[in-house]
Amino acid sequence: MADPEPVISSCSSREEGNPCTFNQHTCPSEEHLLEDQMRRKLKFFFMNPCEKFWTRGRKPWKLAMQVLKIAMVTIQLIFFGLSNQMVVAFKEENMIAFKHLFLKGYVDQMDDTYAVYTQSDVYDRIIFAVNRYLQLRSISVGNHAYENKGAEQSAMAICWHFYKQGNVCPGNDTFDVDPEVKTECFFVEPDEAVDTGTLEEKKLNLTLDFHRLLTVELQFKLKAINLQTIRHHELPDCYDFTLTITFDNRAHSGRIKISLENDISIRECKDWHVSGSIQKNTRYMMIFDAFVLLTCLASLTLCARSVVRGLQLQQEFANFFLLHYKKEVSVSDRMEFVNGWYIMIIISDILTVIGSILKMEIQAKSLTSYGVCSILLGASTLLVWLGALRYLSFFPKYNLLILTLRAALPSVIRFCCCAAMIYLGYCFCGWIVLGPYHDKFRSLNVVSECLFSLINGDDMFATFAKMQQKSYLVWLFSRIYLYSFISLFIYMILSLFIALITDTYETIKHYQEDGFPETELRTFISECKDEPKSGEDQLEDGPPVSTGRLSP
User: Can you state the angle between helices 472-486 and 400-434, rounded to 10 degrees?
Assistant: First the structure.
Protein backbone atom coordinates (compact mmCIF):
# COMPACT_ATOMS: atom_id res chain seq x y z
CA MET A 1 0.00 0.00 0.00
CA ALA A 2 1.49 3.32 -1.07
CA ASP A 3 2.26 5.86 1.60
CA PRO A 4 -0.05 8.87 1.51
CA GLU A 5 1.42 12.16 0.32
CA PRO A 6 2.63 14.31 3.21
CA VAL A 7 0.48 17.27 4.12
CA ILE A 8 2.38 20.51 4.62
CA SER A 9 0.35 22.35 7.20
CA SER A 10 2.34 25.56 6.89
CA CYS A 11 1.05 26.24 3.37
CA SER A 12 -2.04 28.38 2.96
CA SER A 13 -4.06 29.11 -0.12
CA ARG A 14 -2.38 31.47 -2.59
CA GLU A 15 -4.15 33.14 -5.41
CA GLU A 16 -2.30 34.16 -8.47
CA GLY A 17 -1.13 37.77 -8.37
CA ASN A 18 -1.59 38.15 -4.62
CA PRO A 19 1.54 37.48 -2.56
CA CYS A 20 -0.53 37.36 0.63
CA THR A 21 -2.75 34.39 -0.32
CA PHE A 22 -1.87 30.84 -1.36
CA ASN A 23 -3.57 28.21 -3.48
CA GLN A 24 -4.07 24.72 -2.08
CA HIS A 25 -2.33 23.13 -5.10
CA THR A 26 0.87 25.18 -4.83
CA CYS A 27 3.35 25.48 -2.00
CA PRO A 28 5.66 28.46 -2.17
CA SER A 29 9.23 28.44 -1.01
CA GLU A 30 10.22 29.08 2.55
CA GLU A 31 11.48 32.57 1.71
CA HIS A 32 8.15 33.54 0.14
CA LEU A 33 6.27 32.33 3.17
CA LEU A 34 8.49 34.39 5.45
CA GLU A 35 8.01 37.47 3.31
CA ASP A 36 4.24 37.02 3.17
CA GLN A 37 3.99 36.54 6.91
CA MET A 38 6.09 39.64 7.52
CA ARG A 39 3.94 41.66 5.10
CA ARG A 40 0.80 40.57 6.89
CA LYS A 41 2.20 41.55 10.29
CA LEU A 42 3.35 44.93 9.02
CA LYS A 43 0.11 45.62 7.19
CA PHE A 44 -1.95 44.77 10.26
CA PHE A 45 0.31 46.90 12.48
CA PHE A 46 -0.25 50.01 10.36
CA MET A 47 -4.04 49.53 10.05
CA ASN A 48 -6.35 51.93 11.83
CA PRO A 49 -8.70 50.60 14.56
CA CYS A 50 -11.65 50.19 12.15
CA GLU A 51 -9.60 48.14 9.70
CA LYS A 52 -8.26 45.99 12.52
CA PHE A 53 -11.82 45.36 13.65
CA TRP A 54 -12.90 44.37 10.13
CA THR A 55 -9.83 42.16 9.69
CA ARG A 56 -9.69 40.26 12.98
CA GLY A 57 -12.69 41.47 14.91
CA ARG A 58 -10.38 43.18 17.40
CA LYS A 59 -12.32 45.64 19.50
CA PRO A 60 -10.94 49.23 19.38
CA TRP A 61 -10.41 49.43 23.11
CA LYS A 62 -7.89 52.26 22.94
CA LEU A 63 -10.20 54.32 20.76
CA ALA A 64 -13.14 53.84 23.12
CA MET A 65 -10.95 54.56 26.12
CA GLN A 66 -9.59 57.79 24.61
CA VAL A 67 -13.11 59.05 23.87
CA LEU A 68 -14.16 58.24 27.43
CA LYS A 69 -11.00 59.81 28.80
CA ILE A 70 -11.56 63.06 26.90
CA ALA A 71 -14.97 63.45 28.53
CA MET A 72 -13.79 62.49 32.02
CA VAL A 73 -10.61 64.59 32.03
CA THR A 74 -12.51 67.62 30.74
CA ILE A 75 -15.19 67.27 33.42
CA GLN A 76 -12.49 66.86 36.07
CA LEU A 77 -10.72 69.98 34.82
CA ILE A 78 -13.94 72.01 34.88
CA PHE A 79 -14.69 71.04 38.48
CA PHE A 80 -11.14 71.84 39.57
CA GLY A 81 -11.18 75.08 37.59
CA LEU A 82 -14.33 76.25 39.37
CA SER A 83 -12.75 75.44 42.73
CA ASN A 84 -9.46 77.09 41.79
CA GLN A 85 -11.34 80.14 40.56
CA MET A 86 -12.64 80.74 44.09
CA VAL A 87 -9.11 80.43 45.45
CA VAL A 88 -7.75 82.95 42.95
CA ALA A 89 -10.64 85.37 43.60
CA PHE A 90 -10.07 85.14 47.35
CA LYS A 91 -6.36 85.89 46.95
CA GLU A 92 -6.91 88.86 44.64
CA GLU A 93 -9.68 90.40 46.73
CA ASN A 94 -7.60 90.11 49.88
CA MET A 95 -4.68 91.77 48.12
CA ILE A 96 -6.89 94.71 47.12
CA ALA A 97 -8.34 94.91 50.62
CA PHE A 98 -4.88 95.00 52.23
CA LYS A 99 -3.76 97.84 49.96
CA HIS A 100 -6.78 99.92 50.92
CA LEU A 101 -6.38 99.03 54.59
CA PHE A 102 -2.66 99.73 55.05
CA LEU A 103 -1.70 102.21 52.32
CA LYS A 104 -2.94 105.73 53.04
CA GLY A 105 -4.67 107.38 50.11
CA TYR A 106 -4.33 104.31 47.91
CA VAL A 107 -6.51 104.22 44.79
CA ASP A 108 -6.96 101.24 42.49
CA GLN A 109 -4.79 101.13 39.38
CA MET A 110 -2.02 103.23 40.96
CA ASP A 111 0.45 100.43 41.81
CA ASP A 112 3.15 101.96 39.58
CA THR A 113 2.55 105.53 40.70
CA TYR A 114 1.99 105.21 44.46
CA ALA A 115 4.87 107.17 45.96
CA VAL A 116 5.75 109.98 48.38
CA TYR A 117 8.11 112.90 47.99
CA THR A 118 8.60 114.43 51.42
CA GLN A 119 9.99 113.15 54.70
CA SER A 120 6.80 113.98 56.57
CA ASP A 121 4.79 111.87 54.09
CA VAL A 122 7.10 108.91 54.73
CA TYR A 123 6.57 109.10 58.49
CA ASP A 124 2.85 109.67 57.97
CA ARG A 125 2.46 106.53 55.81
CA ILE A 126 4.45 104.42 58.25
CA ILE A 127 2.41 105.58 61.24
CA PHE A 128 -0.83 105.05 59.28
CA ALA A 129 0.09 101.42 58.43
CA VAL A 130 1.04 100.69 62.07
CA ASN A 131 -2.22 102.12 63.38
CA ARG A 132 -4.26 100.15 60.87
CA TYR A 133 -2.43 96.99 61.92
CA LEU A 134 -3.23 97.63 65.58
CA GLN A 135 -6.88 98.45 64.80
CA LEU A 136 -7.39 95.48 62.47
CA ARG A 137 -10.03 93.75 64.58
CA SER A 138 -12.27 96.79 64.72
CA ILE A 139 -11.92 98.08 61.14
CA SER A 140 -11.62 95.00 58.89
CA VAL A 141 -14.82 93.63 57.35
CA GLY A 142 -13.12 90.31 56.57
CA ASN A 143 -12.35 87.43 58.88
CA HIS A 144 -8.73 88.49 59.28
CA ALA A 145 -6.81 87.81 62.45
CA TYR A 146 -3.28 87.99 63.83
CA GLU A 147 -1.08 84.92 63.73
CA ASN A 148 -0.90 83.13 67.06
CA LYS A 149 2.43 81.87 68.36
CA GLY A 150 1.46 79.85 71.37
CA ALA A 151 -0.14 82.21 73.86
CA GLU A 152 1.14 85.30 72.06
CA GLN A 153 0.36 86.93 68.74
CA SER A 154 2.92 87.71 66.07
CA ALA A 155 4.21 91.26 66.01
CA MET A 156 4.84 93.69 63.15
CA ALA A 157 8.52 94.08 62.30
CA ILE A 158 9.66 97.55 61.20
CA CYS A 159 13.11 97.42 59.63
CA TRP A 160 15.14 99.99 57.73
CA HIS A 161 18.20 99.31 55.61
CA PHE A 162 20.85 102.01 55.13
CA TYR A 163 24.46 102.58 54.14
CA LYS A 164 26.88 102.25 57.03
CA GLN A 165 28.38 105.66 56.25
CA GLY A 166 27.07 108.38 53.99
CA ASN A 167 28.09 111.99 53.66
CA VAL A 168 26.63 113.42 50.46
CA CYS A 169 27.06 117.03 49.33
CA PRO A 170 25.55 117.43 45.84
CA GLY A 171 26.19 121.19 45.86
CA ASN A 172 29.95 120.62 46.14
CA ASP A 173 29.90 117.49 43.90
CA THR A 174 31.37 115.47 46.77
CA PHE A 175 30.33 112.38 48.68
CA ASP A 176 31.76 109.88 51.11
CA VAL A 177 29.82 106.59 51.23
CA ASP A 178 30.53 103.21 52.78
CA PRO A 179 28.41 100.77 50.65
CA GLU A 180 28.08 98.24 53.47
CA VAL A 181 24.38 97.87 54.23
CA LYS A 182 23.22 97.79 57.84
CA THR A 183 19.77 96.91 59.18
CA GLU A 184 17.92 98.00 62.30
CA CYS A 185 14.53 96.70 63.42
CA PHE A 186 12.00 97.00 66.18
CA PHE A 187 8.67 95.27 66.76
CA VAL A 188 5.12 96.44 67.45
CA GLU A 189 2.97 93.98 69.35
CA PRO A 190 -0.73 93.68 68.32
CA ASP A 191 -1.99 94.35 71.86
CA GLU A 192 0.35 97.30 72.34
CA ALA A 193 -1.40 100.68 72.56
CA VAL A 194 0.62 103.10 70.49
CA ASP A 195 -0.23 106.78 70.62
CA THR A 196 1.59 108.11 67.60
CA GLY A 197 1.00 111.71 68.57
CA THR A 198 2.40 114.41 66.35
CA LEU A 199 5.19 113.93 63.89
CA GLU A 200 7.67 115.80 66.05
CA GLU A 201 7.02 113.56 69.08
CA LYS A 202 8.15 110.45 67.15
CA LYS A 203 6.25 108.06 69.43
CA LEU A 204 7.43 105.17 67.20
CA ASN A 205 11.01 106.12 68.05
CA LEU A 206 11.79 106.06 64.33
CA THR A 207 14.34 108.48 62.94
CA LEU A 208 15.49 108.01 59.37
CA ASP A 209 18.60 109.44 57.72
CA PHE A 210 17.28 109.83 54.19
CA HIS A 211 20.75 110.45 52.70
CA ARG A 212 21.79 106.93 53.72
CA LEU A 213 18.36 105.25 53.67
CA LEU A 214 17.77 102.45 51.15
CA THR A 215 14.47 100.87 52.16
CA VAL A 216 11.99 100.72 55.02
CA GLU A 217 10.04 97.49 55.40
CA LEU A 218 6.97 96.79 57.50
CA GLN A 219 6.37 93.05 57.70
CA PHE A 220 3.57 91.25 59.50
CA LYS A 221 1.42 88.12 59.22
CA LEU A 222 -2.34 87.74 59.09
CA LYS A 223 -4.62 84.72 58.82
CA ALA A 224 -8.01 84.17 57.18
CA ILE A 225 -10.44 81.39 56.17
CA ASN A 226 -12.05 81.20 52.74
CA LEU A 227 -15.65 80.49 53.70
CA GLN A 228 -17.14 80.99 50.22
CA THR A 229 -16.28 77.41 49.27
CA ILE A 230 -18.95 76.15 51.68
CA ARG A 231 -21.68 77.40 49.33
CA HIS A 232 -20.17 75.15 46.64
CA HIS A 233 -20.06 72.11 48.92
CA GLU A 234 -16.31 72.22 49.46
CA LEU A 235 -14.35 72.36 52.67
CA PRO A 236 -12.78 75.80 53.38
CA ASP A 237 -9.02 76.41 53.36
CA CYS A 238 -7.02 78.39 55.89
CA TYR A 239 -4.75 81.13 54.52
CA ASP A 240 -1.56 82.66 55.86
CA PHE A 241 -0.74 86.13 54.51
CA THR A 242 2.79 87.46 54.94
CA LEU A 243 2.51 91.16 54.12
CA THR A 244 5.48 93.39 53.36
CA ILE A 245 5.10 97.16 52.87
CA THR A 246 8.26 98.55 51.25
CA PHE A 247 9.36 102.17 51.04
CA ASP A 248 11.99 102.08 48.29
CA ASN A 249 14.58 104.86 48.33
CA ARG A 250 17.43 103.00 46.59
CA ALA A 251 17.48 105.44 43.68
CA HIS A 252 17.74 108.49 46.00
CA SER A 253 15.88 110.42 43.31
CA GLY A 254 13.50 112.30 45.61
CA ARG A 255 10.71 109.81 44.90
CA ILE A 256 10.14 106.98 47.38
CA LYS A 257 7.98 104.28 45.83
CA ILE A 258 5.67 102.38 48.14
CA SER A 259 4.59 98.81 47.39
CA LEU A 260 2.76 96.06 49.22
CA GLU A 261 3.67 92.44 48.58
CA ASN A 262 1.60 89.52 49.80
CA ASP A 263 3.13 86.06 50.14
CA ILE A 264 0.22 83.63 50.45
CA SER A 265 0.30 80.08 51.74
CA ILE A 266 -2.69 77.76 52.02
CA ARG A 267 -2.91 75.14 54.69
CA GLU A 268 -5.35 72.64 56.14
CA CYS A 269 -7.50 74.02 58.90
CA LYS A 270 -6.73 72.35 62.21
CA ASP A 271 -10.14 71.98 63.80
CA TRP A 272 -13.26 72.29 61.67
CA HIS A 273 -16.83 71.10 61.58
CA VAL A 274 -19.39 71.78 58.86
CA SER A 275 -22.89 70.39 58.97
CA GLY A 276 -24.74 69.44 55.80
CA SER A 277 -23.83 67.58 52.63
CA ILE A 278 -20.22 68.75 52.14
CA GLN A 279 -18.70 65.47 53.24
CA LYS A 280 -20.99 63.52 50.93
CA ASN A 281 -20.18 65.76 47.97
CA THR A 282 -16.45 65.48 48.64
CA ARG A 283 -16.76 61.70 48.74
CA TYR A 284 -18.44 61.64 45.32
CA MET A 285 -15.71 63.83 43.82
CA MET A 286 -13.04 61.55 45.27
CA ILE A 287 -14.72 58.53 43.69
CA PHE A 288 -14.90 60.30 40.33
CA ASP A 289 -11.22 61.29 40.53
CA ALA A 290 -10.30 57.71 41.40
CA PHE A 291 -12.22 56.51 38.34
CA VAL A 292 -10.34 59.02 36.17
CA LEU A 293 -7.10 57.79 37.70
CA LEU A 294 -7.87 54.14 36.90
CA THR A 295 -8.95 55.01 33.35
CA CYS A 296 -5.70 56.86 32.71
CA LEU A 297 -3.66 54.00 34.14
CA ALA A 298 -5.46 51.59 31.79
CA SER A 299 -4.86 53.94 28.84
CA LEU A 300 -1.22 54.29 29.84
CA THR A 301 -0.81 50.51 29.96
CA LEU A 302 -2.43 49.94 26.55
CA CYS A 303 -0.46 52.70 24.84
CA ALA A 304 2.83 51.65 26.44
CA ARG A 305 2.19 48.08 25.27
CA SER A 306 1.55 49.34 21.72
CA VAL A 307 4.78 51.36 21.75
CA VAL A 308 6.77 48.34 22.97
CA ARG A 309 5.19 46.11 20.32
CA GLY A 310 6.05 48.69 17.67
CA LEU A 311 9.69 48.73 18.74
CA GLN A 312 9.79 44.93 18.75
CA LEU A 313 8.30 44.79 15.25
CA GLN A 314 10.76 47.44 14.12
CA GLN A 315 13.69 45.31 15.26
CA GLU A 316 12.12 42.21 13.72
CA PHE A 317 11.64 43.95 10.37
CA ALA A 318 15.19 45.36 10.46
CA ASN A 319 16.61 41.87 11.04
CA PHE A 320 14.41 40.43 8.30
CA PHE A 321 15.41 43.13 5.80
CA LEU A 322 19.10 42.70 6.59
CA LEU A 323 18.88 38.91 6.29
CA HIS A 324 16.82 38.68 3.09
CA TYR A 325 17.72 41.90 1.24
CA LYS A 326 21.18 42.63 2.68
CA LYS A 327 20.10 46.22 3.37
CA GLU A 328 19.78 48.40 6.45
CA VAL A 329 16.36 49.91 7.17
CA SER A 330 16.49 53.70 6.87
CA VAL A 331 15.98 55.93 9.87
CA SER A 332 12.74 57.35 8.40
CA ASP A 333 11.34 53.83 7.98
CA ARG A 334 12.36 52.95 11.53
CA MET A 335 10.55 56.00 12.83
CA GLU A 336 7.35 54.77 11.17
CA PHE A 337 7.14 52.14 13.93
CA VAL A 338 7.33 54.77 16.69
CA ASN A 339 3.82 56.16 17.06
CA GLY A 340 4.17 59.74 18.27
CA TRP A 341 0.46 59.87 19.13
CA TYR A 342 0.89 57.07 21.67
CA ILE A 343 3.88 58.83 23.24
CA MET A 344 1.84 62.03 23.57
CA ILE A 345 -1.05 60.08 25.13
CA ILE A 346 1.37 58.40 27.56
CA ILE A 347 2.70 61.81 28.65
CA SER A 348 -0.87 63.04 29.02
CA ASP A 349 -1.82 60.01 31.12
CA ILE A 350 1.19 60.48 33.40
CA LEU A 351 0.31 64.15 33.94
CA THR A 352 -3.34 63.26 34.57
CA VAL A 353 -2.44 60.56 37.08
CA ILE A 354 -0.18 62.88 39.07
CA GLY A 355 -2.65 65.76 38.80
CA SER A 356 -5.55 63.55 39.91
CA ILE A 357 -3.60 62.38 42.95
CA LEU A 358 -2.84 66.00 43.88
CA LYS A 359 -6.47 66.97 43.33
CA MET A 360 -7.64 64.18 45.63
CA GLU A 361 -5.15 65.30 48.27
CA ILE A 362 -6.36 68.90 47.92
CA GLN A 363 -9.99 67.81 48.33
CA ALA A 364 -8.99 65.81 51.39
CA LYS A 365 -7.21 68.97 52.65
CA SER A 366 -3.92 67.12 52.98
CA LEU A 367 -2.21 69.34 50.38
CA THR A 368 -2.81 72.84 49.01
CA SER A 369 -0.71 72.77 45.81
CA TYR A 370 -3.29 74.48 43.61
CA GLY A 371 -0.69 75.91 41.24
CA VAL A 372 1.09 72.63 40.54
CA CYS A 373 -2.19 70.75 40.17
CA SER A 374 -3.49 73.38 37.73
CA ILE A 375 -0.41 73.04 35.52
CA LEU A 376 -0.62 69.23 35.49
CA LEU A 377 -4.34 69.02 34.77
CA GLY A 378 -4.24 71.86 32.23
CA ALA A 379 -1.33 70.37 30.27
CA SER A 380 -2.84 66.87 30.36
CA THR A 381 -6.20 68.11 29.08
CA LEU A 382 -4.47 69.97 26.25
CA LEU A 383 -2.60 66.81 25.21
CA VAL A 384 -5.76 64.69 25.50
CA TRP A 385 -7.62 66.95 23.08
CA LEU A 386 -4.62 67.06 20.73
CA GLY A 387 -4.49 63.27 20.85
CA ALA A 388 -8.05 63.17 19.53
CA LEU A 389 -6.68 64.46 16.21
CA ARG A 390 -5.17 61.02 15.64
CA TYR A 391 -8.57 59.49 15.14
CA LEU A 392 -9.69 62.27 12.80
CA SER A 393 -6.60 61.56 10.71
CA PHE A 394 -8.11 58.21 9.70
CA PHE A 395 -10.43 60.16 7.39
CA PRO A 396 -8.63 61.65 4.35
CA LYS A 397 -10.60 64.91 4.33
CA TYR A 398 -9.75 65.58 8.00
CA ASN A 399 -6.12 64.53 7.67
CA LEU A 400 -4.89 67.54 5.71
CA LEU A 401 -4.02 69.68 8.73
CA ILE A 402 -2.04 66.95 10.46
CA LEU A 403 -0.14 65.96 7.33
CA THR A 404 0.68 69.59 6.56
CA LEU A 405 1.95 70.26 10.09
CA ARG A 406 4.05 67.12 10.13
CA ALA A 407 5.55 67.76 6.69
CA ALA A 408 6.22 71.46 7.33
CA LEU A 409 7.64 71.06 10.85
CA PRO A 410 11.34 70.46 9.90
CA SER A 411 11.36 73.39 7.48
CA VAL A 412 9.52 75.62 9.94
CA ILE A 413 12.03 74.86 12.70
CA ARG A 414 14.98 75.69 10.44
CA PHE A 415 13.26 78.87 9.25
CA CYS A 416 12.46 79.97 12.82
CA CYS A 417 16.07 79.40 13.93
CA CYS A 418 17.28 81.79 11.23
CA ALA A 419 14.54 84.35 11.97
CA ALA A 420 15.31 84.13 15.71
CA MET A 421 18.84 85.42 15.09
CA ILE A 422 17.46 88.58 13.49
CA TYR A 423 14.78 88.90 16.18
CA LEU A 424 17.28 88.62 19.04
CA GLY A 425 19.52 91.19 17.37
CA TYR A 426 16.67 93.69 17.28
CA CYS A 427 15.77 92.85 20.92
CA PHE A 428 19.27 93.60 22.23
CA CYS A 429 19.62 96.71 20.09
CA GLY A 430 16.25 98.13 21.14
CA TRP A 431 16.89 97.40 24.81
CA ILE A 432 20.24 99.15 25.01
CA VAL A 433 19.44 102.12 22.74
CA LEU A 434 15.76 102.85 23.29
CA GLY A 435 15.39 101.57 26.86
CA PRO A 436 16.25 104.91 28.54
CA TYR A 437 13.73 106.74 26.35
CA HIS A 438 10.81 104.34 25.94
CA ASP A 439 8.97 102.35 28.62
CA LYS A 440 8.33 99.47 26.22
CA PHE A 441 12.08 98.86 25.89
CA ARG A 442 13.09 98.97 29.56
CA SER A 443 13.87 95.24 29.88
CA LEU A 444 14.60 92.39 27.49
CA ASN A 445 11.35 90.66 28.37
CA VAL A 446 9.31 93.80 27.67
CA VAL A 447 11.24 94.45 24.44
CA SER A 448 10.47 90.93 23.20
CA GLU A 449 6.78 91.36 24.01
CA CYS A 450 6.68 94.72 22.26
CA LEU A 451 8.37 93.47 19.08
CA PHE A 452 6.18 90.37 18.95
CA SER A 453 3.13 92.61 19.22
CA LEU A 454 4.44 94.74 16.37
CA ILE A 455 4.83 91.66 14.17
CA ASN A 456 1.13 90.97 14.69
CA GLY A 457 0.20 94.58 13.97
CA ASP A 458 -0.74 95.48 17.56
CA ASP A 459 -0.15 98.84 19.27
CA MET A 460 1.94 100.28 16.45
CA PHE A 461 0.94 103.93 16.80
CA ALA A 462 1.43 103.94 20.59
CA THR A 463 4.92 102.48 20.18
CA PHE A 464 5.87 105.26 17.78
CA ALA A 465 4.13 108.03 19.75
CA LYS A 466 5.58 107.23 23.19
CA MET A 467 9.16 107.73 22.04
CA GLN A 468 10.63 110.63 23.99
CA GLN A 469 12.16 113.30 21.76
CA LYS A 470 14.87 114.41 24.18
CA SER A 471 17.60 113.48 21.71
CA TYR A 472 17.06 114.02 18.00
CA LEU A 473 19.69 111.39 17.18
CA VAL A 474 17.98 108.74 19.32
CA TRP A 475 14.56 109.74 17.94
CA LEU A 476 15.86 109.35 14.37
CA PHE A 477 17.41 106.00 15.27
CA SER A 478 14.11 104.82 16.78
CA ARG A 479 12.30 105.57 13.51
CA ILE A 480 14.86 103.70 11.43
CA TYR A 481 14.79 100.85 13.96
CA LEU A 482 10.99 100.49 14.05
CA TYR A 483 10.39 100.99 10.33
CA SER A 484 13.09 98.48 9.38
CA PHE A 485 11.87 95.90 11.91
CA ILE A 486 8.22 96.15 10.83
CA SER A 487 9.10 96.06 7.13
CA LEU A 488 11.50 93.15 7.50
CA PHE A 489 9.32 90.94 9.69
CA ILE A 490 5.83 91.70 8.38
CA TYR A 491 6.53 92.11 4.68
CA MET A 492 9.37 89.61 4.27
CA ILE A 493 9.90 87.10 7.08
CA LEU A 494 6.23 86.61 7.95
CA SER A 495 5.30 86.37 4.25
CA LEU A 496 8.02 83.77 3.69
CA PHE A 497 6.78 81.84 6.71
CA ILE A 498 3.24 81.78 5.34
CA ALA A 499 4.54 80.83 1.88
CA LEU A 500 6.45 77.92 3.44
CA ILE A 501 3.28 76.56 5.05
CA THR A 502 1.24 77.20 1.89
CA ASP A 503 3.75 75.38 -0.31
CA THR A 504 3.66 72.38 2.01
CA TYR A 505 -0.14 72.50 2.01
CA GLU A 506 -0.24 72.45 -1.81
CA THR A 507 2.25 69.59 -1.90
CA ILE A 508 0.15 67.52 0.48
CA LYS A 509 -2.99 68.19 -1.58
CA HIS A 510 -1.12 67.04 -4.69
CA TYR A 511 0.02 63.88 -2.90
CA GLN A 512 -3.54 63.14 -1.77
CA GLU A 513 -4.69 63.27 -5.39
CA ASP A 514 -1.77 61.46 -7.05
CA GLY A 515 -0.45 59.35 -4.20
CA PHE A 516 2.31 59.83 -1.64
CA PRO A 517 5.92 58.88 -2.42
CA GLU A 518 6.51 55.26 -1.48
CA THR A 519 9.25 54.39 0.99
CA GLU A 520 10.91 50.98 1.03
CA LEU A 521 8.72 50.00 3.98
CA ARG A 522 5.48 51.06 2.28
CA THR A 523 6.54 49.45 -1.01
CA PHE A 524 7.22 46.19 0.79
CA ILE A 525 3.82 46.28 2.51
CA SER A 526 1.94 47.33 -0.63
CA GLU A 527 2.65 43.97 -2.29
CA CYS A 528 0.02 42.52 0.04
CA LYS A 529 -3.24 43.29 -1.79
CA ASP A 530 -5.79 41.89 0.69
CA GLU A 531 -8.55 44.28 1.65
CA PRO A 532 -9.17 44.65 5.37
CA LYS A 533 -12.66 43.16 5.00
CA SER A 534 -11.44 40.14 3.03
CA GLY A 535 -10.96 38.00 6.12
CA GLU A 536 -7.57 36.74 4.96
CA ASP A 537 -5.87 38.12 8.06
CA GLN A 538 -8.07 36.35 10.59
CA LEU A 539 -5.12 34.44 12.07
CA GLU A 540 -3.24 35.99 14.94
CA ASP A 541 0.34 37.11 14.59
CA GLY A 542 2.78 34.26 14.51
CA PRO A 543 6.24 34.13 16.02
CA PRO A 544 8.99 36.40 14.72
CA VAL A 545 9.72 35.58 11.09
CA SER A 546 13.02 37.27 10.51
CA THR A 547 15.06 34.24 11.52
CA GLY A 548 12.36 31.55 11.72
CA ARG A 549 12.28 28.31 9.64
CA LEU A 550 9.35 26.15 8.47
CA SER A 551 9.01 22.58 9.68
CA PRO A 552 8.87 19.89 6.95
Answer: 170
